[in-house]
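Support reply, case 0932

Customer input (verbatim):
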Amino acid sequence: MKTKALLFVIVLAAAGAGGYWYYSPHLAMQSMQKAAKANDAETFNEHVDYPKLRESFKGQMSALLAEQLGQSTGASGAESLGAMLGLAMVNQFVDAFVRPEVVMRAMQNGEFSPEASEGGAEGGGKTKEPEWTVERQGANKVIAYGRDPDEGPDAKAVGIVFERYGFTEWKLTEVRLPDMK
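Our regenerated output:
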């Protein structure tokens, strides 16, 4: 009788630990959203790996500028020089752009922009929270896509990538900008 009770407790504990492990990225996202709404940078920053996030942006920005530089082969010398200077300044731009308040704003409204949207309902700013869809990519990576609910299902969405650090700790490591084409 005691063996069955012990086995039941072990199975129940394993199921609870497995459930917590599976839903831990959702709990991390909720914690980040609450911290962003409360402007609690300390709690928010516990869930962000800023060095990885900056490297992700540097790669995306470099690729975007290189693509534009490749498209401007018939452009004037001034345009080509401007694109090459932009490519050289990506690191400084990303370091200045990827700050806690900007990343928190992306979590609040699903947009990654350096400035807060102006106004409320009267000012034409965003009034609704983004709709988030979550996609699991293996056991150690989760991507949450945020899009404006008013823009429809085909709207461009920002992808926020979380990676597992330990058993149930998740950190934001990448923000995937929507396709700008």
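We compared this against your earlier run and they match. Two observations from our side: The two ends are 66 Å apart (CA to CA). The first strand starts at residue 131 and ends at 136. Please reopen the case if you see a mismatch on your end.
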